[in-house]
Amino acid sequence: MNKTRLEAFSDGVLAIIITIMVLELKVPEGMDLESLRPIFPKFLSYILSFIYVGIYWNNHHHMMHTVKQVTGGILWANLHLLFWLSLVPFVTAWIGENNFAPFPMILYGVILLMAAIAYFILQSQILKKHGPDSVLSKAIGKDLKGKISPVLYSIGIISANFNPLFAGIMYILVALMWLIPDKRIEKIIDPE
């Protein structure tokens, strides 16, 4: 099976996810700077989630460049990833509406952790199909960021009940870690 449909479908779903998130931002009643104060937590949660969806879109795009053939396992693993990412607008709105309260922050972290696990499963399915000598296998290497991320998410989830701010810092730290462009796949595909 060709990967083009999988990429197009994934791009469409991710675009819809971002659209849903921005639609949650309501225009303030007033016309001054003070009228923005009530929506500030929603805006902060939107920024973080937009960055996360963008990171997944970027990494998914690069990973798909290494795929030569799509299997049923890859399709299902991709849908699994999209499922968890489709919940991002819900938890984004929830943490924004509730000023980053403990339980919404816990659930936000759980969704991020599950998306990371789903991405790992998708990556594993691609590696299973293309083998240990594949472009993706060479590019991933030790995958330090991929191993650190679930640990930081877990720390955030556990700490959210006691210190939601610290949990937010953990989630931001993971986003910053992945925001730095990952050139591993580009270096393997185009070494110049």
Automatic annotation (TrEMBL):
Entries under Pfam families matching the protein: TMEM175 (PF06736)
Topology term for the membrane: Multi-pass membrane protein
Transmembrane region(s): 9-27, 39-58, 70-95, 101-122, 151-180
Main location: membrane
Catalysis: reaction(s): K(+)(in) = K(+)(out)
InterPro entries membership: TMEM175-like (IPR010617)
Lineage top rank: taxon: Bacteria
Subcellular location: Membrane
UniProt name for this protein: Putative membrane protein
